[in-house]
Amino acid sequence: MAIIDELKLKYKQGSMLMRIIYINIAIFVVMMYVGLFGLLFNYQVLSVFKWVELSSNPWEVLYKPWTLITYSFCHTDMLHILFNMLWLYWMGRIFLEYFTSKQLAGLYVLGALGGAALFLLAYSYIPAFSSPQSYMLGASASVIAIVVATAVYSPDYKIGLLFIGMVSLKWVAIVTLLVDLLSINTLENAGGHIAHLGGAVVGAVYALMMRRGHDITAPLNATIDALFSLFSRKNKPGVGGPVGGTAYRGNNQQQSHAKQQANETELDRVLAKIKRSGYTALTDEERDILFSFSKKK
Questions:
Q1: Which of 84, 113, 151, 162 has the greatest number of beta carbons closer than 10 A?
Q2: How would you classify residue 205: left for phi > 0, otherwise alpha for psi between -120 and 50, otherwise beta?
Q3: How far is CA 157 from CA 104, 105, 171, in A?
Q4: Helix ranges (DSSP H) in the chain
Q5: Which among 169, 201, 195 is positioned nearest to 183, based on CA atoms?
Q6: Where are the domains of the chain?
Q7: Total Cβ atoms within 10 A of residue 70
Q8: Which residues, at least 6 apart from 138, have a Cβ–Cβ distance to it below 8 Å?
Q9: How far apart are the first and last CA of the chain?
């Protein structure tokens, strides 16, 4: 139990980037153990995976709509998840130099939806993919969305590549997309490469809209925040009842003033840290604070 408690603590203390990686790894471990159980006891476990992977059949997706997202948290083998998570970690850290943790999570989900949409369209309207029915698993579409968004927003950002040296992000994104385009011709994993392109489109749109001051992840994140707020309020004692409600309204103005003062103090601290150490020294939480105040202004 100590190991489980330690993992829970690391998850709570980790950034949104690390939480997404932890979720992917946890799901992969569970799926591998389920597969091992099926192998040892001759139990058919393929039906279990059908409930999380995305089908190319739109009618199947209609009664399993959650697969539009769940497929992006599941992987087929060790190399599959290893490359995706390394790619996500490296590019996610660069992404967080310009954007917030919430935007990272929002773009991860939107990238998955973009990849799913192009995947379904291709298998519905392109004759070469009309049969047989295909299924898709993997975080690649979400990861590519983050890669392309970062490259479009900061194309000349330099990263070091083994045996090559310093390369601009724009060339990393371009080569990645060219490889995906050429790989479609093999038809071996055509659906996956098509999904990558769908994620890339979402990432490019996100970066271009952010340059204009519009965050396409904001509606999704606002919905998620509202749902979490709704459930948390229901679980708090006294909130929603007549007595708790009256007490809350009576102190509302005082609490609001105190909260505003605390927020302004926190903002002053963040600005002082930027002046002292630069923007890159900020934590994810401090970037969220700065971004929140900039939106209010």
A1: 151
A2: alpha
A3: 18, 22, 10
A4: 2-13, 16-40, 46-49, 58-62, 67-70, 78-95, 101-125, 140-153, 169-183, 190-211, 218-235, 242-250, 252-277, 284-296
A5: 195
A6: 49-218, 254-296
A7: 17
A8: 71, 72, 74, 75, 76, 80, 84, 192, 195
A9: 47
For the segment 95-142, what is each residue's pLDDT rounded down to a tens digit?
999 999 999 999 999 999 999 999 999 988 888 777 677 889 999 999
CA pair distance 199, 84, nearest whole angstrom: 14
C-alpha 76/C-alpha 49 separation (Å) is 10
- Which amino acid would we find at residue 215? D
The token pair that represents 10 in the structure block: 């690391």
CATH no. for 49-218? 1.20.1540.10
Interval 14-63: pLDDT, tens: 688 999 999 999 999 988 887 777 667 666 655 667 889 999 999 999 99
Q: Please state the length of the chain.
A: 297
Q: What distance in Å separates the CA atoms of residue 285 and residue 9, rounded to the nearest whole number?
A: 17
